[in-house]
Write a structure and sequence with these properties.
alpha/beta; Aspartate Aminotransferase, domain 2; Aspartate Aminotransferase, domain 1; seven-stranded mixed sheet; 15 helices; globular
Length: 405
């Protein structure tokens, strides 16, 4: 096809995305400071100035994860790559791994274990419920040869938060390493890698860090470093081999491994600087405060949460769709009339649940109020009997009762 033929067949020009308000399960809104950072001049991935920034990213990630782990850096790829990096480096054929499944992402962990030649011992809990530590301990007792315990800290498909500290204590008691998914929790809920004794942890750039998708922060303990050094077999992925990546992310010498996404790493750096400026504790408090206000507003519309209050993720609000309300019609109206994106249910929850994200930059007062008013309007137009303005009033009352510390 010639250029002229292509031009006549296609009407393609510069792409200008619409301005959305992202209140789904991710990505979240990207702050203008982070977008501005991405637009700065591209440097070579071995440039010494860029290398200095990479060192700062490592320090900032140590702060975010609350760890002193030397092996703390960012993988070039989304959280799914961070997940696979943990499993591909830590599992050898025949290794037994206890995997907790209480939603979609626990299932993905099982898939990783099996694809890398491991044997998955599955601990199941009902969707919307946290991982049951007693079930985990029972599994560890029944399988004393288990090498790893893997679980999702914040299950994005359901909005439930599991007790990572207790689960990691159990793992150490039974001489297991841990792999922990914190894609949705990093920056929004407390994570204390060193204090809790987490061995391998991964997250994503696009949730509470409010950075564009495509990077996965990870951190590994000395126990993992020693495990990988003493493997009997080669790591099955060249790209995700920790030993090779450390040659690039090392602090003294830096050897070529792959062409890192330099501008995306500028963005991650800026988002982590913003988290540091705000302070972890204040970020956790902000996410909690906005969740409480949003919850108060939803209650006036008779909308109920999937997860019991003590286990709810403040940054991922998973709620049942009210009887008689059309799931897709509401989401379509919110997107068309308000440029507001919310999340649908996954797997067993498809068509039954909405997922509202209050993550990172998206977790702010104006988003809570706007979303509640938009829902009231759409519900009212669909014939739902409610009093307009009640949800916003309840949210403001919650804010008055819960000032920021």
């Amino acid at each position: 096809m010639t250029t002229e033929d292509f031009r006549s067949a296609k009407n393609i020009a510069t792409f200008y995305p619409p301005q959305r308000i992202l209140m789904g399960p991710g990505p979240s809104d990207t702050h203008h400071r982070v977008l501005s950072a991405m637009a700065r001049p591209t440097l070579g991935h071995l440039d010494p100035v860029f290398a200095n920034m990479m060192e700062e990213i490592k320090d900032l990630l140590r702060y975010a994860f609350q760890t002193k782990n030397k092996m703390t850096f960012s993988v070039s790829g989304p959280g799914s790559v961070g997940m696979e990096m943990c499993f591909v480096n830590m599992i050898e054929p025949g290794d037994k791994v206890v995997v907790c499944r209480n939603g979609v992402f626990g299932s993905r962990m099982i898939e990783n274990v099996e694809r890398h030649g491991g044997v998955a011992v599955v601990v199941d809990d009902k969707w919307g419920e946290p991982v049951d530590p007693q079930k985990v301990e029972d599994a560890l007792k029944q399988h004393p040869d288990a090498k790893i315990l893997a679980f999702v800290h914040a299950e994005t498909s359901t909005g439930v938060l599991s007790d990572a500290q207790t689960l990691c204590e159990l793992a150490r008691r039974y001489d297991c390493l841990t792999i922990v998914d914190t894609v949705t929790s990093l920056g929004g809920s407390p994570i204390k890698v060193d204090e809790w004794g987490i061995d391998a942890i991964y997250s994503g750039s696009q949730k509470c860090l409010s950075c564009p998708p495509g990077l996965s922060p990870v951190s590994f303990s000395e126990r993992v470093t020693n495990l990988v050094k003493n493997r009997k077999t080669k790591v099955h992925s060249w790209f995700m081999d920790i030993g090779l990546l450390l040659g690039y992310w090392g602090s003294s010498t830096r050897t070529y491994h792959h062409t890192a996404p330099t501008n995306s790493l500028y963005a991650l750096h800026e988002s982590l600087v913003m988290l540091y400026e705000e302070g972890l504790e204040r970020s956790w408090a902000r996410h909690r405060r906005n969740h409480e206000a949003f919850k108060a507003g939803l209650a006036t519309m008779g909308i109920n949460y999937v997860v019991d209050e003590q286990y709810r993720l403040p940054q991922l609000n998973s709620v049942y769709i009210p009887d008689g309300v059309d799931d897709k019609a509401v989401r379509d109206r919110l997107l068309a009339d308000y440029s507001l994106e919310i999340g649908a249910g996954l797997g067993d929850f498809a068509g039954k649940v909405w997922r509202f994200g209050l993550m990172g930059t998206s977790s702010r007062v104006e988003n809570v109020v706007m979303c509640l008013n938009a829902l009231e309007t759409v519900f009212s137009d669909m014939g739902v009997n409610l009093k307009r303005g009640t949800a916003e009033s309840a949210a403001h009352q919650s804010y008055a009762e819960n000032p920021m510390p």
